[in-house]
Amino acid sequence: MNLHLVRPKNISPTSLRNQGYNLINLLQSPSTTTKQLKQIHVQLLLRNSRSHSILYLHNSMLLAYANSPTPNDAFAFFATQMGHLPWDKYSLQFLLKASSKSKSLIHATHVHLMTIKLGFASYTTLMNAILCCYALCDQLQDARNLFDVMPHRDIVSFNSMIHKYAESGNMDDAFHLFQQVPAPNVITWTTLVFGFSSNGDLSAAREVFEWMPERDVVSWNAMISGCVQNQEPVEALQLFRLMLTQNVNPNSITLCSVLSACGSLGALETGKWIHVFVNKNRFRLNPFLGSALIDMYSKCGVMDLAVEVFRCLEGQNLCTRNALINGLAMNGHAEQALDMFNKMVDDGFRPDEVTFVGVLLACSHGGFLEIGTRHFYTTMKEFGITPVLEHYACMVDLLGRSGLLMEAEKVIRNMPITPDEVVWRALLGGCRLHKNVDLAEKVVIEIEARGSGDYVLLSNLYASVGRWEDVEKVRKIMKHRGIKKRPGCSSIEVDNKIHEFISGDNSHPRYAAICEKLEELGMKMSEDGFSAETSVVLYDIEEEEKEQALGHHSEKLAIGFGLISTVPGSTLRIVKNLRFCIDCHNATKFISNICNREIVVRDRTRFHHFKDGICSCRDYW
DNA sequence: CTAGGGTTAG
């Protein structure tokens, strides 16, 4: 692009105007580079017209800078060029946009003062922008003070204020203000839905959603994503179906949320249906939709389709790459995950902390001790990434499963940040794997466990080495402290419907048939000499769980149901909320062989792909 | 050109 410097003297009025339009086009085009902005800046310095068209040009310059990666340049331009030339409320508006982007409280305050001084306080639009800018700079009280003294408040003022309260977790003030809105519109109601759900009160959000006089696609999106973020994916899918029956057209944002729900449920059929919907309705495969699709396929254990989507995307960004790396790592394709990472770095893309969670996860699942250690101690540093809790958890897991329990403990003791229970539990996992009871006891004390998972793990560990008195002791502690074991829950999707099974629950309509099937399999298994040490492993701590020792862990129920309700030979996909139980893992290997089925189970941390009696985790999880 | 909804980890 050629930018000719204009010498004002030699230029006719017409060509000046044309030149102005060209510059405005450039200023308003998103593809104009910062360098070009600077060239235009220089050109404008050579002019000194006081006409209205130059004002428009100057304002365009401000806006272009505000939208650029260096928004503060807008202020430099304003100070040097516009001090002695006319400017108006739009100039201030764009300066505010620049303040917002750079989160500059000083600039916002400065514009606020100018606004008051010049008698622009009655321009509500401008005042609203100032209000938003204060809130963005975490000065919620300043925003509220401004709100209270504004000569006029319109619906935008109210909505902004309510939204900022909601965002900061202050639903009391948000709701109080909502009640004062003279005529709430759809946006106001939606803000309230968003507020309640993002503060964890899904039922309040749902109530508002039902109450609101009308709903548009954004309202539906707020409600659906609220369900997803509050771990209610089933409700999210139900709402999505309801939305379709009410003839509200979903957009790509809706689909992102719904795909995320499918992922957490392992609902492959529904996920595929949405993928078809995406194609049929010609949605662009942007990075958002792309990541959501990759994640959905990954979490359903279908990596070839995840890779296929990755290849078809219009554009890649950090998220799409991270989604694929993590998917590969979770599904046990450790080498491919690392290849992907290396390629990304070779191509000059900067990994972030999420990338390294995936990389370390891959090393952990692949048992790549050296590579993982190098990435943790060297590569991350090279990219200027400070390890966070998740990285430590991965690293402890990697050391632990490699049998380096002492090193793992040392890593935790030397952490510059306080280890959380996830980190400690990673070490506990290593203790379980290598049957190190002493360290496990120490770790459990460290955790000051609030959840019961740690005690259960410890108790299982005692059981696995035959220390029954200790098993009993832990049971008593749990009872004494009122700690409940989190029930195991597994789900399977059959004919687009999610069936949930809770450990020991017999409420499923086909419960009897499921038991019959499991019994039949149990017979075959014992004929083949499958009993091994199950009595040891199955000894559990709660009375009611002894009943489940008969083969009614949630994953077994789900597998039994899958076997009797799908066509022979088809793949079973199951999602479990806890760690895979050892006995069930053994049984599933066996079942995959005698029933000639591929069985994919996603547990709390990773995937198990069973085929012909073998599991992809190599019995190492 | 001021107000509402989105993807990736654990």
Automatic annotation (TrEMBL):
GO BP annotations, alphabetical order: RNA modification
Q: Matching NCBIfam families, A to Z?
A: PPR (TIGR00756)
Q: Spell out the Pfam families in the cross-references.
A: DYW_deaminase (PF14432), E_motif (PF20431), PPR (PF01535), PPR_1 (PF12854), PPR_2 (PF13041)
Repeat PPR: residue ranges?
154-188, 216-250, 317-351
Organism of derivation = Protea cynaroides
**Protein's recorded name:** DYW domain-containing protein
Q: Which GO terms describe its molecular function?
A: RNA binding; zinc ion binding
Q: Which residues form the DYW domain?
A: 529-621
Q: Locate the transmembrane regions by residue number.
A: none
InterPro entries from the xrefs? DYW_dom (IPR032867), E_motif (IPR046848), PPR_At4g14850-like_plant (IPR046960), PPR_rpt (IPR002885), TPR-like_helical_dom_sf (IPR011990)
Keyword annotations for this protein, in alphabetical order, are: Repeat
Taxonomic placement: Eukaryota, Viridiplantae, Streptophyta, Embryophyta, Tracheophyta
